[in-house]
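Dear colleague,

Thank you for sharing your sequence with our group. We've completed the structure prediction you requested, and as agreed, I am returning the results in plain text so they can be pasted directly into your records. Please verify that the sequence below matches your submission; if there's any discrepancy, let me know and we will rerun it promptly.
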Amino acid sequence: MMKLRNCLLPCLALIVAGVGFSQSSPAKVRPDRYAGLHYPEDARKFRGWRHHGQDIPVWDVHPELPRDVFTFARLRYPYRKGFRWQADYPEAELHLSWRLHQLTSIQVNPYPVIVDLEAEQLREHPFLFISEPSNMNLSDAQARLLGDYLQNGGFILIDDFWGGDEWRLFAPTLKRIWPQSDPVELTHNHPLFHCVFDLKEPPQVHSNVFWDQMRRSGRSTLGNEIRPDAAAPIFRALYDTRGRMVMLICLNNDLGDGWEQEAFDPDYFREVSEKHAFPLGINIVFYALTH
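Please find the predicted structure tokens below.
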């Protein structure tokens, strides 16, 4: 990760991490089972698909600020079918948390958490990650709860969905969460793409499976996750009345896979995780914490 180290801007030393008020030990969440799998309080102890999170170190947070840390919080949402909140769990959050700790001065909680749609849980975590949102099945009360969360200072990162069909499935849910304004498409000159790493273009992160197919076929594109209308990354943002970005939507992107699969293949790490997934992830966290 030397390239990532060398690219860090001096401003990282000035980051104040007192925004993410969360526990520095594993947070307690209600037991939940999916396909016979249990989600433990420490994600390193998860035993499921493609799991190697037990190899990720645990580190100490500042003893004088045990709760003033950034915590990666993933939303556990009800869904209709197919696409799920668990995509890329737990390596995505474990790896991004480790890289944030390793490469920046942000105080980072080594224990990512799963958050349910409950006000008392949401208020503890100002940064919330949602994966594969197309088949979210929220009640009106749950949609209002997420809208209140955003209005009261929360930030949501939406990742891992592709093409117009999946966007059309998600759009009505988004409107119920945030009816007061429509998403704004970000151009490359937006500060989010330049605040820590100066990204030459808005990045697109492919899953390791499709990236490997592209490499084996000798092609530079592969219809981007099989969907013909997903050839270019699209970043859309929601803003509150004060101009604060409350949600970033990464369409035609799979940042979670770029974080999760950093050990999949050395070439995938160099060409995808190191060049695109981690720099953009760090930029997003920095921007959310400082704006």
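Summary note from our side: The helical segments are 2-7, 91-103, 119-122, 140-151, 163-177, 208-217, 255-260, 266-290.

Kind regards,
the structure core
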